[in-house]
Design brief:
It is a single chain. With about 110 residues, the protein is mostly helical. It has one domain. Helix 2 crosses helix 4 and helix 4 packs across helix 5.
Length: about 110
């Protein structure tokens, strides 16, 4: 398959949550913690691209330590925090803000469907 053909077979993410969950899952596969279960889908970015984006958003103050902690905690659980569960209410607000920030940046990179 040529590079041109591969570029046309890329599947963009639907939203920032899908991007984040894909990133964490792919990192766990890469590190050998999880076995790969799925179909080979070509994505418009690499793991390093997502890691770089998250780092830049953090360093310029658009993502906080608290938001990153919530993203990691619930990303490992493979679900978003629920706003109607009292103990997850604050985490849900932090998650929403973080996902909005990531979504804006990922749209600019062309990783998400518009």
């Amino acid at each position: 398959m040529t590079q041109t053909q591969m570029a046309y077979n890329q599947e963009k993410f639907h939203n920032a949550e899908q991007l984040w969950f894909w990133f964490l899952y792919s990192k766990s596969v890469q590190n050998g913690y999880t076995h790969y279960h799925g179909t080979p889908t070509r994505r418009p970015c690499e793991l390093l691209d997502v890691e770089t984006l998250i780092t830049k958003l953090y360093l310029c103050g658009k993502l906080s330590d608290e938001q990153l902690a919530v993203m990691k905690k619930f990303g490992d659980r493979r679900r978003a925090p629920h706003q109607y569960i009292w103990s997850e209410n604050r985490a849900a607000a932090l998650w929403r803000d973080a996902m909005n920030t990531i979504e804006t940046a990922a749209l600019e990179c062309g990783w998400l469907e518009k």
